[in-house]
Description:
Elements: H1 2-8, H2 12-25, H3 30-40, H4 45-83
Helix pairs in contact: 1-2, 2-3, 3-4
Amino acid sequence: xxxxxxxxxxxxxxxxxxxxxxxxxxxxxxxxxxxxxxxxxxxxxxxxxxxxxxxxxxxxxxxxxxxxxxxxxxxxxxxxxxxxxxxxxx
Length: 90
């Protein structure tokens, strides 16, 4: 991500601006939420905390979605096995 490169080169304002733009375009961009929250922790702790909370909520949502997908696949495979049908292979 460009923000990381800017930060590595010492351009904190540039990295901040880049991550803010990414979040403006995609409010659920986890990497940008996390990176910006870490960057702002000393200069703007309140905003850093808000961004961190958004990141954690996004992670929890993804975990639930991943778990639901895993359960759905398991259920489908079980049904296929019970009916004697073979799963498709790609």
